[in-house]
Specification:
By secondary structure, the chain is mainly alpha-helical. It is 89% helix and 0% strand.
């Protein structure tokens, strides 16, 4: 069978697709990591708010307020980081989709090439078989065999 002339380009497209998939996976991992960190910080804030400790002086009250403000600020920063990671993930998804579409186009061309090459091979084989059959059963041989049977 004839080799697909764009096989090298198809390998490059598959490599690009794999790279885009790896980048998409990494972007999604970063989103999950930030979400987990945010959940831990939020649990810390909820646990601190739900504690039954009694504040007895102004210094402790200021410290608790500062800790809560810091935690809320950390949550806001994690939300901003998560938004940035979501944008990166959307871009990575778009890049993967483009790489996949380019690969699919070449894969379809390869499938058509393979189908045509197979059809050509089968046609050539059939022609060869027809040639062999016509050489083995020439009319003079056929009539001679009929005469032997009579």
């Amino acid at each position: 069978m004839k080799q697909f002339s764009l096989a090298g380009l198809l390998r490059v497209r598959h490599a690009q697709q794999q790279k885009a998939l790896a980048e998409l996976s990494e972007a999604n991992r970063r989103i999950r990591d930030v979400a987990e960190r945010r959940a831990r910080v939020e649990r810390t804030l909820v646990d601190a708010a739900g504690s039954k400790s009694i504040v007895t002086d102004a210094a402790t009250l200021i410290a608790v307020a500062a800790a809560r403000a810091s935690t809320r600020s950390m949550i806001a920063e994690l939300d901003a980081v998560a938004d940035a990671h979501r944008i990166e993930a959307a871009e990575a998804q778009s890049e993967f989709n483009g790489a996949r579409a380019r690969s699919i186009a070449l894969e379809k061309l390869e499938e058509r090439h393979n189908a045509l090459a197979l059809a050509e091979e089968l046609r050539d084989e059939q022609l060869a078989l027809d040639e062999i059959a016509s050489n083995n059963h020439s009319p003079s041989q056929f009539t001679a065999r009929e005469g032997e049977q009579s």
